[in-house]
Amino acid sequence: MAEEFVKPGNQSMGWNDPPVFSYGKQNQINARLRRNHLTRRVAPPQITGDMPAPCIMVATLPPPTAPPVCSSIASPPVASPGQSESREPEFDDLWEVLTKLQMKCEGSVAARVTGDITRKLELLKSQWKNDKLSPAVKVRMGKLCNALQSECWGEATELQVSLTVDYMGEVSTWVIALRKLTSLASCNSE
Amino acid sequence: MAETFLEYIQQNEERDGVRFSWNVWPSSRLDATRTVVPLACLFTPLRERTDLPPVQYEPVLCSRATCRAVLNPLCQVDYRAKIWACNFCYQRNPFPPTYSGITEMNQPAELVPQFTTIEYMVQRGSQIPLIFLYIVDTCMEEEDLQALKESLQMSLSLLPRTALIGIITFGRMVQVHELGCEGISKSYVFRGTKDLSAKQLQEMLGLTRPSGTQQRSAQPQHLPQYNRFLQPVQEVDMSLTDLLGELQRDPWPVAQGRRPLRSTGVALSIAVGLLEVCFSKHVKECAFPNVGGRIMLFMSGPPTQGPGMVVGEELKTPIRSWHDIEKDNAKFVKKATKHYEALANRAATNGHVIDIYACALDQSGLLEMKCCANLTGGYMVMGDSFNTSLFKQTFQRVYSKDVHDTFKMAFGATLEVKTSRELKIAGAIGPCVSLHTKGPCVSENEIGVAGTSQWKICGLDATTTIALYFEVVNQHNAPIPQGGRGALQFVTQYQHSCGQRRIRVTTIARNWADGQSQIQHIAASFDQEAAAVLMARLAMFRADTEEGPDVLRWLDRQLIRLCQKFGDYHKDDPTSFRFSETFSLYPQFMFHLRRSPFLQVFNNSPDESTYYRHNFMRQDLTQSLIMIQPILYAYSFIGPPEPVLLDSSSILPDRILLMDTFFQILIYHGETIAQWSKAGYQELAEHENFRQLLQAPVDDAQEILQTRFPMPRYIVTEHGGSQARFLLSKVNPSQTHNNMYAWGQRPGMTGDAGAPILTDDVSLQVFMDHLKKLAVSSAT
Question: How many contacts, defined by CB atoms under 8 Å, are there between A and B?
């Protein structure tokens, strides 16, 4: 559903900063119970009374110049899965879905809230039109609007959270409006 | 049915979340002291279980006022008379009327033998919201502040919609922000130099109680006065997003050679006071007493003014080091620690959690503030900057959900322990405070948080683990009842993140054995992993009040005594010493514990030592052991990945090593591997196997990185690399610059005997030789 990626951490600000996992990748592992399988240890031989390992003679040969070759010629490395070609959606289609949803919800909330949502959607519009958003964000926005259109509120919320977690730098000013819209729409439809 | 003790131990841990040092118990006080390692257990109250039966009624309790144990599978039941006998105090209790239909064939869940752990979901009262109060330091670089703002904005999408949220910002002054006011932003500003009592805060924020308050029941629930500062996320998420987005750096200019004036002490005091005034059960008109609340402090440097300051304004005076503390040259430590301890105790009394997220290149005062996290069960996260993946992802994981799609964090837990009459409770070590509950099962001997059979854990999750220490009180030569078993019951009441109160009950029993005639049964039941962690917690607890060398001497003394008691040897013949497999890893654990950053403060700042100890004192057994003795796996063309000795001899040119210290995940390429990788063989089709070899440890590392809290650092290094020092400092230095010639090696050759390490540290071999000598000696 959400794109999965692993990117390097911020090595200039933090030493040995760990890699960044996308929201989708993190939740994939949380779906199963946390289990760390690297937990085994080896006891030192002298404690159990086993004979110590024989002293290894120093090799006089130089190290091999190349790693051992595959027994059969393997196919070249497969491109990482999930990188299907995703087209960027048309902004006008998205805008139609969002404004329609906003009009539906208008009656159930205070004017201040509607005003806030409108303001934030305008920010989204201006960033999109001025090419300030990356292709990945646009693609995910397309999926989100499809979910909203099909009234799959749960999926829409997940997509919104994944956008927030993975691309907060780009979406911080307006993404919360999508959350509000989704939650209002799902309340109204109950 | 378990085949071996190892399987038995593992099954019990999975079912009940408990690991004992001994699984067959010495039946007298004298015998118990002679086993050296105390009878104790590591208990994970909320261990993740997906298969617990849904029990939606109140637990049935023993009617004796001094007992009140919960009905459990160990109780004797008379199904015809509908009476049950408490296995702790032998009181006969009638079943409540709702149990009139039970029979041997139709048992209630709590009597079914495999449900030694069971969870009651008590539907008392309405759903209780959670509270989150953010305290944000604004004295940081623009880039850092921007990253922190984005993380906080992101969290608004992760919080439960009904949770209450508030925000306090601070720098030189402290600002408490009013939320939900339309059109304008309002805040109350306090001086950062003057502390406030809860009462003063209440008056200044206009939170005084209305007089003649019989109207409270007529008032709708969402109109209480705290609403100006703490509002439901769903009401204020958009305006709070804007407020956070508009946050500026602290406007007070910082002169050359000086630190920014940071009033962390007052900010935290105001936060604790605000929640106390609004949500403490000591406030009569409070709508939600006993609510789970989380205060989250984000700071980018040390407090430099007001109560709780840790260092002065001038940069030329560095923040205290261990050397300064040892020489009594750290003038702020005592007073600051006292300030934060008082706040921690208040928060713990009110059932509120304090988290500390400290991101700075220098120390921030975690040493002085440790009580805040340690007493309340809060998190302590230490990073270099808020603009790092380590902080951002660790922070995200605070809000992670379990397999039921509910938050992993739980609140307001009380843990009560009941014992059968042969046992008493000496105390607990972990992220808890005492509830001062005296009773027949409380021992006079004190270990850790003692003098009570009940503790409060304000914040906990599925890995939070408490160490509990027991005393056997049976007198020597007092007869054990035939087939008699000792029993323990752990009753954990807590607030689940969905708002519901739950009660988890674990009841276990173990056989008694005579310490003279049945010592081999006791020995065979030893859990060396649990024993190592339990002894380590004891040592770290002592290290807070005793001198470092004294703690090490105590630890060594216990190890020697254990070897003397349970080793096989001929007197005065060290070479004859043997330990059975049950004990074989224990000396190695103690060796690594002695040289770990938990007990060796050399080369660590006080904040770092505090951070490491904080994490150790709450993690479950597996993670704690990793911290004591890191895991080392080797990847090579010879076979599948395998664990190898944490020893310099494991560092070979033609293999890749993966080391997990809990705080770091390190991948090390041996010299030959590094050369091949530089030459680019992994890009060639016929060397696909080499590419896979390089990838294998990366994949395994990622699995750990994706789930661990807090997120570890990630180091990829190679032979000769500067970062390889993290590996070299952890492995047992069996080969050093002092003894490398003894290994038959000519200088300048690396060969197959592993890499020598430049150190004067004692190796495991030397340590074991000394240990054996002392253990077998008739003089010791």
Answer: 222
